[in-house]
Amino acid sequence: MAVFLIWLPLAGLVNTLLRRMLERMDDAGAPPSVRLAMVGLNVVAFALAGAAGGYLVGRFGGRAGRREAAASGAVVAAISWAIALAEGAPAGALGWALLLVVMVSIGSAASYAGGAAGLRGRPGGAPPPRR
After folding, report:
1. Do residues 67 and 116 touch, judged by C-beta distance below 8 A?
2. Distance between CA atoms of residues 95 and 38, nearest Å
3. 10 Å Cβ neighbour count for 112?
4. Closest residue by Cα to residue 50 from 80, 78, 79, 70
5. Span 61-81, average pLDDT
6. SS (H, E, C) the chain
7. Residue 93 neighbours by CB under 8 Å, 6+ apart
8. Would the pLDDT of 64 be above 70?
9. What residues contact 117, with CB distance under 8 A and at least 6 apart?
10. Among 13, 77, 80, 125, which has the minimal tally of Cβ within 10 Å of its Cβ?
11. pLDDT for 125
12. Rounded CA separation 52/114 (Å)
């Protein structure tokens, strides 16, 4: 939940800034550099949210550690992908499959890194041993 709660305001901010940038442009179509900025800034927002959520899991997650943080990032990515798929944006089967792989990779990697940082921030430095 933390990833969603952090990601939604970040995505809103990024897309508001991008919309303002597009409104200032005279062309009807956005140039490739603007399209790249749109994708790149949204990826950065998602990765930052994943790292922050992973940090919370690592820091305050009891026995949870890096693996659980990475799993949370992958789950958020898969849920987000499913929501986008349900919206019906045209991408084709291969495009949707690649998008899922990319989103899960980014989400789990960012959350894993955040979980590792969170573990370092614990008073004991590591989660209690598993039983």
Report:
1. no
2. 18
3. 25
4. 70
5. 89
6. CHHHHHHHHHHHHHHHHHHHHHHHCCCCCCCHHHHHHHHHHHHHHHHHHHHHHHHHHHHHCCCCCHHHHHHHHHHHHHHHHHHHHHHCCCCHHHHHHHHHHHHHHHHHHHHHHHHHHHHHCCCCCCCCCCC
7. none
8. yes
9. 51, 54, 55, 58
10. 125
11. 61
12. 6
Read off the tokens for 70: 């990475």
Structure-token pair, residue 107: 């989400």
Structure-token pair, residue 86: 């349900």
User: How far, in Å, CA of 11 to CA of 45, rounded?
Assistant: 6
Residue located via tokens 């792989």:
101
Amino acid at 66: R
- pLDDT tens-digit series, residues 88-131: 767 777 888 888 899 999 999 999 999 999 988 888 666 555 55
Alpha-carbon span 88 to 100, nearest angstrom:
15
Q: Which amino acid is at 96?
A: W
Burial of 75 (0-12, 13-18, 19+ CB in 10 A): middle
- Total residues found in the chain within this entry: 131
Read off the pTM: 0.80
